[in-house]
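User: Predict the structure for this protein chain, please.
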Amino acid sequence: MRDLLNKYCNYLLIEKGAAGNTLEAYGRDLSRYVSFLEKKGIVDPRSAVPETVVEFLVQIKGEGLSANSMNRSLAALRGFYKFLLQEKLVDQSPLANIELAKVWMRLPDTVSKEEMNLILSQPGEQTPLALRDSAMLELLYATGLRVSELAGLTMNSINWQVGFLTVMGKGSKERVVPIGKTAYDSVRRYVDEARPKLVKSKTTDVLFLNRFGSVFTRQGLWKIIIHYAQKAGLQKNVHPHTFRHSF
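Assistant: Here is the predicted structure, written as structure tokens:
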């Protein structure tokens, strides 16, 4: 695998004229990925599946990488597999439907990290509804999901073993989104301790349930977010998209 990595780096340098700092960053990101594969006993790039790549992304996200660094790593991986496709060394890329948190421009109503942490701490109590709300807020912040996507999550949307969501977005386009440890732990606790107390019908597979055991409306989720922003004492115009702008 490392000979392929060296070949790709030479390609970037000679064919693409990559700048030294770009080449160094990509080489470092990809070397970390190859080391990850080697520890899993994967030596053939065709053996890496989407779950393998997501597991790698979840691991480096847990190491505290910024959204910029995470997206650079994803860009490096996409470029590497595009090169392997061109060289006919793989039949398909395992990254086709993988998405990370978008790096957004700072907007006037974007809250700071400290303010966001204050919102996330508001549910506080250990009641079923508080555990649910905490899980929803953490998940919104960790993934940048749209509120409609959060409402549409089911019990089958989460891969608990690796730690990622399968999300059905606009245009019925499916994508894979790493969760991160804090959000994962919060959602896991909600599912284990709180959701069973909110379920009214054993046939529902909706992940987040309202107090009546039904699926949330967008307005219902919006009211919860506003409630905790006000409880935190924020004067800014906090709305669901604030979470998508606050990575």
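The beta strands are 158-159, 164-168, 174-178.
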